Amino acid sequence: MRNDHRSNHAGTTGTTRDSGDLRRTGRWSAPAALAGLGLAVAATLALPSTADAAGPTWRCGNAYADTPCPGGRRIDATAGPDEAARRAADEATRRIEQRADTLERHRLQTERAVMARDDRIALANMRLAEAQRRDAVRQAAQQSARSKRDSGSRSGGKRSGKHAATGDFVAQGTDGARR
Question: What's the total number of domains in the chain?
Fold first, then answer.
């Protein structure tokens, strides 16, 4: 049989291992985990903090450096903003948010006005198109009536019931003879 450190089948010649062994189970035992955690905490506390080890910080325009620069000023990098600076920043944030809300309301109002205008323009265009269609149908009907009327007068050379030369009324009988 195969001698594998992960399998502990009956009949194998391998050695049995402690249940807390990382190589066998993939987990740390509770005492080993506590010991590792204790070492990590001790190492962290023994190291100096980054801000203390870095020394003074200089502000040079919009950049920060750990060495002095012309026109730069030394700042305390570990201290946070004081209460006045925090209040000023909060007030500036409130003003910016109010301005953003005002701009959003104005934008939405403008968009509604544009949509209403576009709706009115679309309605006017639809009405104009409908009027143009009705006008085209009316003109086609008038043209058709004219062509029918004109085609009837061309067949006899004169209009029915009128004298061809003068346009005076000429009486005709049912047989087409003039009277």
Answer: 1
pLDDT per position as a tens digit, 95-108: 999 999 999 999 99
Please tell me the predicted confidence (pLDDT) of residue 178: 58
Residues 6+ apart with CB under 8 A from 17: 5, 8, 23, 24
Q: Give the model's pLDDT for residue 113.
A: 97
pLDDT of 175 > 50? The answer is yes
- Whether 178 is in a domain gets the answer no
Tens-place pLDDT, residues 110-155: 999 999 999 999 999 999 999 999 999 999 999 999 888 887 655 5
Strand partners, 63: 60
Enclosing domain of residue 124: 57-151
Would residue 124 count as lying in a domain?
Answer: yes
In a domain, 177, yes or no: no
Does residue 157 form part of some domain? Answer: no
